[in-house]
Amino acid sequence: MRRKDREITDPSQIRRIMQACTHLNLALCDGDTPYIIPMNFGFEEEDGKWTIYFHSAGIGTKIDLLRKNPQAAFAMTATTRLIEGDLACDYSMAYESVCGKGRIEIVPDGEKIRGLTAVMRQYSAAESFVFDETVVRVTTVLRLSVDAITGKSLDR
Questions:
Q1: Mean pLDDT, range 128-143, rounded to an integer
Q2: Residue 104 near residue 141, CB atoms below 8 Å
Q3: Which of 18, 67, 72, 149 is the most exposed place for a label (fewest CB within 10 A)?
């Protein structure tokens, strides 16, 4: 990151920003062309290892692409606020963001509930969740094992 004064590396601050985000943009490889899609997500962090979960249909462009190349990147943004100025070049945006990259894979059936629970925790204050087994069976759960993650804050 060019602006080290805006970099966030503290896991508790990264977690706080991620919890404030409503979605993330997932980037996959489509040959020489990037493919990006907004996704609902959930995450876990254990011993400095970040894992991000998504739910998906079992077919479609995203599934086809990750089967060809499991490398992925992501970006999420929270706390945006326009900063106005006298001149056009004085305008800016206050925000916090988290970006990273890693390897994405389809979660085996026996581990789907863990991923779906992480997604539910992102959007609900409930302590536990009941899942319909019929729906879980036909839902594809994706797991992004994060290799690199960083946060950034610009708040003037």
A1: 96
A2: no
A3: 67
State how far the Cα of 58 lies from the Cα of 64, in Å rounded to an integer: 9
Write the Ramachandran bin of 10: left for phi over 0, alpha for psi from -120 to 50, otherwise beta. beta
Query: 10 Å Cβ neighbour count for 83?
Result: 12
Handedness of CA 74, 77, 12, 114 (dihedral sign): negative
Mean pLDDT, the chain, integer: 92
Paired tokens of 98: 């988290």
Residue 135, C-beta contacts closer than 8 angstroms, at least 6 positions apart: none
Identify the CATH number of the domain defined by range 4-154.
2.30.110.10
pLDDT at 1 over 60: no
**Are 142 and 105 in contact, with CB atoms under 8 Å apart?**
yes
Confidence of residue 9 (pLDDT cuts 50, 70, 90): confident
- In the predicted model, what is the mean pLDDT of residues 59-82? 94
Quote the strand ranges of 40-139, DSSP E. Answer: 42-46, 49-56, 71-83, 92-106
Put simply, whether the predicted model's pTM sits higher than 0.85 gets the answer yes
